[in-house]
């Protein structure tokens, strides 16, 4: 069963073609990697998927819905969330608040509940906090919940972004270079975390430069170059693909 | 003398702080200086007169003054919040993606419109707010705090406390902080940014309405142009505390009120309105981001 279907999306910025007629499908419960040289259009695809930009042409199907023209907060509610290459935490909020603010799209008490502090609101608030702690535990940050997100070390901030993304209870989670700037130890921890996400039933798409990570965990790999999809397949197929080798290493003369 | 000036300063400062909060909250979320905010304050004062007159006419004021007053506050707040929300939807929202100067000019336009609208419908002369409280008060160490002053200080303090609780404790408060820090990211965790912006205008306008109504009761006179100078001073207070910072606006407002009151008491009251701007210039020279503001790098 396919969770996500990208049908020939094209994105142009003025005269520049960031993404050109890219199509692929993502199986429910799988890990997919999008790779390609800088400027290949990988992040643009993420931006289209999350509603930050709208594709110039083409359509995106998620579950049974067409999400191409939806606003970001609607897409999150349908079940797609993401992280960023350059960390975008709410730095002035504590780690646990970062996670809690994400859970609110799945909870119900509104303004009135908060003012009247009804029993329902209090119970819900309590369960949100408990759940937030579980998410922090998943990424190993349960003891730093009250620290300001901006004061956490780099690796922890990267993981906190993932916790915040999972807290929206997505079916599909998009990770933009999760291991960028990490040392080998942190990288292998991150790989474990991504595998755990899969075990928890989440579908993962990641943009990644570290080939060890890509080859190690992906079931399907999509290769982009200059906005065009040049290859797709499992790690073994991609390793042997001459177009991919060319895009990365240049043409042999 | 000192104690008296401190009490006077706190009274005015509380009012400045309430208005400054509206500036700072809107700026924090939209990076827009809402120049029409002073006019909301002015509308609060006028609506207060209108509703109180209405309640007097139907005999409610003589039946129970506190009840009439409470209802007057509720109605003014409700109408001012509606004004604030409408202004946001009509004058700012369509310009959300326009260059930053456009909503600013739109705000100035709204401000001029509202002033003239009130002038034409209510007249250009001063309106009198009925005298409700006795001018007497409590004497503390030679200084007199009138009941009205006590009322203003208490109401300002309670509202600021409630706002602080709202921002830190509630889910909408968290959402507001998230939107202020990173609007796009906030929408990516499922926050409806438009709702948060609406709530910000509703709260900011409500606080300004309370401020306007209290000042009308305090001075007893209202005029269509009072929003201008009060707005500019509250804006000064917000910049003083660091625009975008809520504790900054509270502190800035009270500081400005005290400074104004002390300097008019000890130096000269003729330059009362100038002191605010002298202190603004000093702060901007020493600490351009304001007392509570962080020198933030340009967002890339």
Features:
heterodimer, A: 253 residues, alpha/beta, Rossmann fold, 2 domains, 10 strands, B: mainly alpha, ABC transporter involved in vitamin B12 uptake, BtuC, two-stranded antiparallel sheet, 12 helices, 74% helix, globular
Structural write-up:
- The complex is a heterodimer of chains A (253) and B (300).
- Chain A has 2 domains: 162 residues, Rossmann fold; 83 residues, Rossmann fold (3-Layer(aba) Sandwich).
- By secondary structure, chain A is α/β, with parallel strands linked by helices.
- In chain A, helix 3 crosses helix 5 and helix 3 packs parallel to helix 6.
- The model of chain A has no long low-confidence stretch (mean pLDDT 89).
- By secondary structure, chain B is mainly α.
- Chain B has 12 helices and 4 strands.
- Chain B has a two-stranded antiparallel sheet with strand order 1-4. In chain B, strands 2-3 form a two-stranded antiparallel sheet.
- Classes of the chains: A alpha/beta (253), B mainly alpha (300).
- Chains A and B meet through helix 2, helix 3 and helix 4 of A and helix 7 and helix 8 of B.
Largest sheet of chain B: 2 strands, antiparallel
CATH secondary-structure class of chain B: Mainly Alpha
Estimate the global geometry of chain B from the Cα principal axes: globular
What is the strand arrangement across the widest sheet of chain A? 6-7-8-3-9-10
């Amino acid at each position: 069963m396919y969770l996500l279907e990208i049908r020939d999306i094209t994105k142009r910025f003025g005269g520049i073609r960031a993404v050109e007629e890219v199509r692929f499908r993502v199986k429910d419960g799988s890990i997919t990697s999008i790779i390609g040289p800088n400027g290949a259009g990988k992040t643009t695809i993420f931006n289209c998927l999350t509603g930050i930009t709208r594709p110039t042409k083409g359509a995106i199907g998620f579950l049974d819905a067409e999400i191409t023209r939806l606003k970001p907060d609607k897409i999150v509610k349908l079940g797609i969330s993401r992280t960023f290459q350059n960390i975008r935490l709410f730095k002035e909020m504590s780690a646990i608040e970062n996670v809690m603010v994400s859970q609110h799209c799945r909870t119900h008490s509104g303004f009135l509940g908060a003012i009247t502090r009804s029993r329902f609101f209090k119970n819900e608030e309590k369960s949100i906090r408990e759940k937030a702690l579980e998410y922090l535990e998943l990424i190993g940050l349960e003891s730093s919940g009250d620290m300001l997100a901006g004061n956490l070390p780099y690796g922890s901030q990267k993981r906190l972004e993932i916790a915040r993304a999972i807290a929206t209870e997505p079916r599909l989670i998009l990770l933009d270079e999760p291991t960028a700037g990490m040392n080998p130890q942190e990288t292998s921890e991150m790989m474990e975390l991504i595998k755990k996400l899969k075990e928890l039933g989440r579908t993962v798409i990641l943009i990644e430069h570290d080939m060890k990570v890509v080859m190690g965990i992906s079931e399907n790999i999509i290769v982009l170059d200059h906005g065009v999809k040049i290859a797709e397949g499992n790690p073994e197929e991609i390793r042997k693909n001459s177009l991919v080798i060319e895009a990365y290493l240049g043409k042999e003369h | 003398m000192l104690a008296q000036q401190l009490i006077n300063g706190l009274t005015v400062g509380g009012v400045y702080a309430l208005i400054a909060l509206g500036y700072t909250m809107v700026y924090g979320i939209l990076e827009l200086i809402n120049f029409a905010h002073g006019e909301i304050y002015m509308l609060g004062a006028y609506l207060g007169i209108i509703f109180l007159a209405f309640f007097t006419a139907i005999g409610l004021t003589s039946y129970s003054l506190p009840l009439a007053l409470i209802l007057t506050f509720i109605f003014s707040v409700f109408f001012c919040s509606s004004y604030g929300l409408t202004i946001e939807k009509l004058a700012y929202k369509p310009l959300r993606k326009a260059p930053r100067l456009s909503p600013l000019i739109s705000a100035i336009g709204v401000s001029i419109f509202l002033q003239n609208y009130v002038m034409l419908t209510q007249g250009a002369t001063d309106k009198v707010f009925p005298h409700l409280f006795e001018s007497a008060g409590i004497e503390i160490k030679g200084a007199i705090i009138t009941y009205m002053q006590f009322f203003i200080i208490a109401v300002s303090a309670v509202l600021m406390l409630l706002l602080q609780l709202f921002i830190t404790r509630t889910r909408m408060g968290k959402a507001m902080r998230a939107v202020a820090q990173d609007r796009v990211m906030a929408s990516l965790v499922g926050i409806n940014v438009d709702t948060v912006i609406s709530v910000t205008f509703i709260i900011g306008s409500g606080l300004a309405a309370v401020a306007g109504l209290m000042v009308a009761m305090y001075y007893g006179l209202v005029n269509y142009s009072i929003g201008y100078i009060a707005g500019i001073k509250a804006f000064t207070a917000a910049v003083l505390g660091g625009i975008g910072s809520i504790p900054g606006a509270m502190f800035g407002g009270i500081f400005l009120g005290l400074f104004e009151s002390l300097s008019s008491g000890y130096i000269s009251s003729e330059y009362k309105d100038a002191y605010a701007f002298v202190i603004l210039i000093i702060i901007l020279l020493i600490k351009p981001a304001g007392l509570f503001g962080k020198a933030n790098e340009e967002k890339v």
